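Q: Trace C-alpha coordinate order:
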Amino acid sequence: MTIHVRSFAKINLGLCIGARREDGFHDLRTVYQTIALHDIVRVAVGRGTGIAIRCADPRVPKDASNTCYRIVERTLAALKARRHIIISIEKRLPVQGGLGAASGNAVATLVALEHALTKRLPSSDKLRIAAEVGSDLPLFLVGGTVLGVGRGEEVYPLPDLPAVPCVVALPEVAVSTPQAFAEWDSCGAGAPASVQSRDSAKLTPSGPSDRMAEFSRRVAAWLAASSGVPALGRGRAETPLLDLVQTGIENDFEQVVFPRYPELREIKSVLQRTGAFYTSLSGSGSAVYGLFRTRPAALKAVSVLNKKGTRAVVTTTLNRRQYWRKFLVSAL
Protein backbone atom coordinates (compact mmCIF):
# COMPACT_ATOMS: atom_id res chain seq x y z
CA MET A 1 0.00 0.00 0.00
CA THR A 2 1.17 3.54 -0.81
CA ILE A 3 -0.01 6.52 1.22
CA HIS A 4 0.23 10.05 -0.20
CA VAL A 5 0.22 12.96 2.26
CA ARG A 6 0.87 16.69 2.21
CA SER A 7 3.80 17.83 4.30
CA PHE A 8 2.93 21.40 5.28
CA ALA A 9 5.28 24.22 6.21
CA LYS A 10 5.32 26.48 9.25
CA ILE A 11 6.24 30.05 10.04
CA ASN A 12 7.26 31.48 13.40
CA LEU A 13 5.19 34.28 14.90
CA GLY A 14 8.00 35.61 17.03
CA LEU A 15 10.97 33.58 18.23
CA CYS A 16 12.80 34.40 21.43
CA ILE A 17 16.19 32.74 22.02
CA GLY A 18 17.15 32.11 25.61
CA ALA A 19 20.39 31.00 27.19
CA ARG A 20 22.34 28.05 25.86
CA ARG A 21 21.71 25.08 28.12
CA GLU A 22 24.20 22.59 29.47
CA ASP A 23 23.01 20.06 26.84
CA GLY A 24 24.05 22.46 24.07
CA PHE A 25 20.52 23.47 23.07
CA HIS A 26 18.94 26.87 23.67
CA ASP A 27 15.76 27.62 25.54
CA LEU A 28 13.21 29.01 23.10
CA ARG A 29 9.82 30.65 23.08
CA THR A 30 7.90 30.82 19.81
CA VAL A 31 4.45 30.66 18.31
CA TYR A 32 4.37 28.29 15.38
CA GLN A 33 1.76 28.71 12.63
CA THR A 34 1.17 26.14 9.89
CA ILE A 35 0.68 27.42 6.34
CA ALA A 36 -0.62 25.84 3.15
CA LEU A 37 2.71 25.55 1.29
CA HIS A 38 3.74 21.91 1.24
CA ASP A 39 5.81 19.04 -0.10
CA ILE A 40 4.25 15.70 -1.08
CA VAL A 41 5.42 12.59 0.75
CA ARG A 42 4.62 9.05 -0.40
CA VAL A 43 5.20 6.06 1.84
CA ALA A 44 5.07 2.53 0.41
CA VAL A 45 5.22 -0.61 2.54
CA GLY A 46 6.41 -3.93 1.15
CA ARG A 47 7.88 -7.25 2.18
CA GLY A 48 11.31 -7.49 3.69
CA THR A 49 13.20 -4.93 5.73
CA GLY A 50 15.11 -1.71 5.17
CA ILE A 51 14.38 1.95 4.52
CA ALA A 52 14.84 3.65 1.15
CA ILE A 53 14.49 7.37 0.47
CA ARG A 54 13.88 8.76 -2.99
CA CYS A 55 14.02 12.46 -3.86
CA ALA A 56 15.07 14.31 -6.98
CA ASP A 57 16.55 17.20 -4.98
CA PRO A 58 20.27 16.42 -4.49
CA ARG A 59 20.35 18.49 -1.29
CA VAL A 60 18.05 16.02 0.47
CA PRO A 61 20.07 13.24 2.19
CA LYS A 62 19.07 9.69 1.28
CA ASP A 63 20.81 7.98 4.19
CA ALA A 64 20.22 7.54 7.92
CA SER A 65 20.85 11.26 8.53
CA ASN A 66 17.48 12.09 6.92
CA THR A 67 14.81 12.91 9.50
CA CYS A 68 12.33 10.68 7.65
CA TYR A 69 14.70 7.72 7.93
CA ARG A 70 15.25 8.33 11.63
CA ILE A 71 11.57 8.65 12.46
CA VAL A 72 10.72 5.46 10.53
CA GLU A 73 13.36 3.53 12.47
CA ARG A 74 11.88 4.61 15.76
CA THR A 75 8.28 4.12 14.67
CA LEU A 76 8.86 0.59 13.40
CA ALA A 77 10.60 -0.28 16.67
CA ALA A 78 7.73 1.17 18.72
CA LEU A 79 5.15 -0.72 16.64
CA LYS A 80 7.28 -3.90 16.69
CA ALA A 81 6.95 -4.07 12.91
CA ARG A 82 9.46 -5.32 10.31
CA ARG A 83 8.71 -4.13 6.77
CA HIS A 84 10.49 -2.61 3.78
CA ILE A 85 9.67 1.10 3.68
CA ILE A 86 10.09 3.34 0.63
CA ILE A 87 9.76 7.09 1.21
CA SER A 88 9.40 9.34 -1.84
CA ILE A 89 9.63 13.10 -1.28
CA GLU A 90 8.40 15.57 -3.89
CA LYS A 91 10.14 18.80 -2.88
CA ARG A 92 8.31 22.08 -3.28
CA LEU A 93 9.62 23.74 -0.13
CA PRO A 94 13.16 25.12 0.13
CA VAL A 95 15.94 23.28 1.93
CA GLN A 96 17.29 25.32 4.87
CA GLY A 97 14.53 27.86 4.37
CA GLY A 98 13.29 28.14 7.95
CA LEU A 99 9.88 26.68 7.03
CA GLY A 100 10.39 23.36 8.82
CA ALA A 101 10.37 21.37 5.59
CA ALA A 102 12.54 18.46 6.77
CA SER A 103 10.67 18.27 10.07
CA GLY A 104 7.31 18.35 8.33
CA ASN A 105 8.50 15.61 5.96
CA ALA A 106 9.37 13.40 8.93
CA VAL A 107 6.02 13.83 10.65
CA ALA A 108 4.18 13.32 7.36
CA THR A 109 6.16 10.08 6.95
CA LEU A 110 5.21 8.95 10.46
CA VAL A 111 1.49 9.57 9.88
CA ALA A 112 1.58 7.96 6.44
CA LEU A 113 3.41 4.94 7.86
CA GLU A 114 0.68 4.46 10.46
CA HIS A 115 -1.94 4.48 7.70
CA ALA A 116 0.07 2.07 5.55
CA LEU A 117 0.59 -0.40 8.40
CA THR A 118 -2.96 0.15 9.75
CA LYS A 119 -1.39 0.49 13.19
CA ARG A 120 -1.46 3.50 15.50
CA LEU A 121 0.87 4.74 18.18
CA PRO A 122 -0.50 6.62 21.21
CA SER A 123 -0.23 10.38 20.71
CA SER A 124 2.21 10.67 23.60
CA ASP A 125 4.54 8.14 21.95
CA LYS A 126 4.41 10.00 18.64
CA LEU A 127 5.26 13.28 20.36
CA ARG A 128 8.14 11.62 22.19
CA ILE A 129 9.55 10.06 19.01
CA ALA A 130 9.18 13.34 17.10
CA ALA A 131 11.02 15.27 19.84
CA GLU A 132 13.84 12.71 19.80
CA VAL A 133 14.36 13.29 16.08
CA GLY A 134 14.21 17.10 16.08
CA SER A 135 13.12 20.15 18.03
CA ASP A 136 10.44 21.44 15.69
CA LEU A 137 8.93 18.09 14.65
CA PRO A 138 6.24 17.90 17.38
CA LEU A 139 4.46 21.04 16.17
CA PHE A 140 3.49 19.16 12.99
CA LEU A 141 1.65 16.59 15.11
CA VAL A 142 -0.58 19.41 16.36
CA GLY A 143 -1.02 21.87 13.47
CA GLY A 144 -2.63 25.30 13.46
CA THR A 145 -1.34 27.82 15.98
CA VAL A 146 1.05 26.21 18.47
CA LEU A 147 3.13 27.49 21.39
CA GLY A 148 6.65 26.06 21.42
CA VAL A 149 8.80 26.12 24.55
CA GLY A 150 11.81 24.21 25.87
CA ARG A 151 14.07 23.86 22.83
CA GLY A 152 10.90 24.16 20.74
CA GLU A 153 9.84 20.53 21.16
CA GLU A 154 7.36 21.16 24.00
CA VAL A 155 4.21 22.14 22.14
CA TYR A 156 0.82 23.35 23.27
CA PRO A 157 -2.13 24.05 20.94
CA LEU A 158 -3.25 27.67 21.06
CA PRO A 159 -6.68 28.98 20.06
CA ASP A 160 -6.99 28.64 16.30
CA LEU A 161 -6.76 31.84 14.32
CA PRO A 162 -8.78 32.70 11.20
CA ALA A 163 -6.87 32.14 7.97
CA VAL A 164 -5.11 35.17 6.51
CA PRO A 165 -3.21 35.65 3.25
CA CYS A 166 0.52 35.09 3.63
CA VAL A 167 3.31 36.00 1.21
CA VAL A 168 6.43 33.86 1.52
CA ALA A 169 9.59 35.15 -0.12
CA LEU A 170 12.02 32.37 -1.07
CA PRO A 171 15.42 33.88 -1.88
CA GLU A 172 18.23 31.72 -3.23
CA VAL A 173 20.00 31.71 0.12
CA ALA A 174 20.54 28.76 2.46
CA VAL A 175 20.90 29.74 6.11
CA SER A 176 22.44 27.21 8.47
CA THR A 177 20.53 27.08 11.75
CA PRO A 178 23.57 25.80 13.73
CA GLN A 179 25.64 28.66 12.31
CA ALA A 180 22.94 31.18 13.23
CA PHE A 181 22.90 29.88 16.80
CA ALA A 182 26.71 30.02 16.90
CA GLU A 183 26.68 33.65 15.83
CA TRP A 184 24.02 34.39 18.43
CA ASP A 185 26.25 32.82 21.08
CA SER A 186 29.28 34.75 19.87
CA CYS A 187 27.64 38.03 20.87
CA GLY A 188 27.27 36.71 24.42
CA ALA A 189 23.46 36.60 24.62
CA GLY A 190 23.22 32.86 24.20
CA ALA A 191 25.90 31.70 26.61
CA PRO A 192 25.03 29.73 29.75
CA ALA A 193 24.37 31.85 32.83
CA SER A 194 27.73 30.89 34.39
CA VAL A 195 29.56 32.19 31.32
CA GLN A 196 27.45 35.34 31.08
CA SER A 197 28.33 36.34 34.62
CA ARG A 198 32.03 36.22 33.72
CA ASP A 199 31.64 38.19 30.51
CA SER A 200 28.76 40.55 31.15
CA ALA A 201 30.25 43.24 28.94
CA LYS A 202 29.12 41.35 25.85
CA LEU A 203 25.52 41.10 26.93
CA THR A 204 22.70 43.02 25.30
CA PRO A 205 20.87 45.46 27.64
CA SER A 206 18.18 42.88 28.39
CA GLY A 207 19.52 39.39 29.05
CA PRO A 208 18.04 36.10 27.84
CA SER A 209 15.92 35.55 30.95
CA ASP A 210 14.44 39.04 30.77
CA ARG A 211 13.58 38.71 27.10
CA MET A 212 12.11 35.23 27.55
CA ALA A 213 9.94 36.47 30.40
CA GLU A 214 8.76 39.44 28.34
CA PHE A 215 7.88 37.22 25.38
CA SER A 216 5.91 34.92 27.68
CA ARG A 217 4.07 37.86 29.24
CA ARG A 218 3.04 39.19 25.85
CA VAL A 219 1.70 35.84 24.70
CA ALA A 220 -0.05 35.28 28.04
CA ALA A 221 -1.71 38.69 27.83
CA TRP A 222 -2.90 37.90 24.31
CA LEU A 223 -4.28 34.56 25.45
CA ALA A 224 -6.09 36.17 28.35
CA ALA A 225 -7.67 38.76 26.05
CA SER A 226 -8.58 36.07 23.52
CA SER A 227 -10.35 34.18 26.31
CA GLY A 228 -12.55 37.11 27.11
CA VAL A 229 -10.47 38.85 29.78
CA PRO A 230 -10.53 42.60 28.95
CA ALA A 231 -7.26 43.85 27.48
CA LEU A 232 -5.56 46.54 29.54
CA GLY A 233 -4.63 49.84 27.99
CA ARG A 234 -5.86 49.27 24.43
CA GLY A 235 -8.72 47.94 22.40
CA ARG A 236 -8.88 44.67 20.55
CA ALA A 237 -7.56 44.47 17.00
CA GLU A 238 -9.82 43.43 14.16
CA THR A 239 -8.43 39.88 14.08
CA PRO A 240 -6.88 37.70 16.80
CA LEU A 241 -3.75 37.20 14.67
CA LEU A 242 -3.30 40.92 14.21
CA ASP A 243 -3.77 41.37 17.94
CA LEU A 244 -1.06 38.79 18.65
CA VAL A 245 1.58 40.31 16.40
CA GLN A 246 0.78 43.80 17.67
CA THR A 247 2.07 42.70 21.08
CA GLY A 248 5.52 43.32 19.60
CA ILE A 249 6.81 39.74 19.36
CA GLU A 250 9.91 39.49 17.16
CA ASN A 251 12.30 36.89 15.79
CA ASP A 252 15.67 37.14 17.54
CA PHE A 253 17.44 35.43 14.64
CA GLU A 254 17.01 38.62 12.61
CA GLN A 255 19.70 40.23 14.80
CA VAL A 256 22.38 37.85 13.49
CA VAL A 257 21.01 36.74 10.11
CA PHE A 258 20.21 40.16 8.62
CA PRO A 259 23.75 41.55 9.03
CA ARG A 260 25.15 38.51 7.21
CA TYR A 261 22.43 38.49 4.54
CA PRO A 262 21.30 42.12 4.05
CA GLU A 263 19.14 41.08 1.10
CA LEU A 264 16.80 39.39 3.58
CA ARG A 265 16.36 42.64 5.48
CA GLU A 266 15.50 44.35 2.20
CA ILE A 267 12.85 41.70 1.45
CA LYS A 268 11.29 42.39 4.84
CA SER A 269 11.26 46.11 4.03
CA VAL A 270 9.54 45.46 0.70
CA LEU A 271 6.83 43.43 2.43
CA GLN A 272 6.31 46.22 4.96
CA ARG A 273 6.12 48.87 2.24
CA THR A 274 3.59 46.85 0.26
CA GLY A 275 1.14 46.65 3.16
CA ALA A 276 1.94 43.60 5.30
CA PHE A 277 0.66 44.06 8.85
CA TYR A 278 3.42 41.76 10.12
CA THR A 279 6.66 40.61 8.55
CA SER A 280 9.39 38.36 9.88
CA LEU A 281 12.13 35.93 9.13
CA SER A 282 10.80 32.40 9.60
CA GLY A 283 12.98 30.38 11.94
CA SER A 284 16.59 31.17 11.10
CA GLY A 285 15.60 31.86 7.47
CA SER A 286 16.12 32.29 4.65
CA ALA A 287 12.36 32.51 4.04
CA VAL A 288 10.83 35.88 4.92
CA TYR A 289 7.06 36.20 5.14
CA GLY A 290 4.42 38.88 5.40
CA LEU A 291 0.82 38.64 6.60
CA PHE A 292 -1.77 40.67 4.71
CA ARG A 293 -5.38 41.70 5.25
CA THR A 294 -6.48 40.85 1.69
CA ARG A 295 -5.36 38.51 -1.07
CA PRO A 296 -5.15 41.33 -3.70
CA ALA A 297 -2.69 43.16 -1.44
CA ALA A 298 -0.66 39.97 -1.08
CA LEU A 299 -0.62 39.44 -4.84
CA LYS A 300 0.65 42.98 -5.33
CA ALA A 301 3.52 42.30 -2.93
CA VAL A 302 4.44 39.14 -4.84
CA SER A 303 4.52 41.12 -8.08
CA VAL A 304 6.87 43.71 -6.57
CA LEU A 305 9.21 41.05 -5.18
CA ASN A 306 9.24 39.08 -8.43
CA LYS A 307 10.18 42.23 -10.36
CA LYS A 308 13.10 42.68 -7.98
CA GLY A 309 14.27 39.14 -8.74
CA THR A 310 13.04 37.44 -5.58
CA ARG A 311 10.78 34.43 -5.90
CA ALA A 312 7.66 34.86 -3.77
CA VAL A 313 4.33 33.06 -3.52
CA VAL A 314 0.93 33.73 -1.99
CA THR A 315 -0.41 31.15 0.41
CA THR A 316 -2.59 31.19 3.51
CA THR A 317 -2.29 30.25 7.14
CA LEU A 318 -3.94 26.96 8.12
CA ASN A 319 -5.92 26.42 11.27
CA ARG A 320 -5.83 23.02 12.98
CA ARG A 321 -8.97 21.66 11.34
CA GLN A 322 -7.83 22.72 7.87
CA TYR A 323 -4.38 21.28 8.47
CA TRP A 324 -5.64 17.78 9.23
CA ARG A 325 -8.45 17.85 6.68
CA LYS A 326 -5.98 18.58 3.88
CA PHE A 327 -3.21 16.30 5.20
CA LEU A 328 -4.14 12.96 3.61
CA VAL A 329 -4.08 13.01 -0.20
CA SER A 330 -4.83 9.38 -1.04
CA ALA A 331 -4.30 5.79 -0.02
CA LEU A 332 -3.68 3.37 -2.89
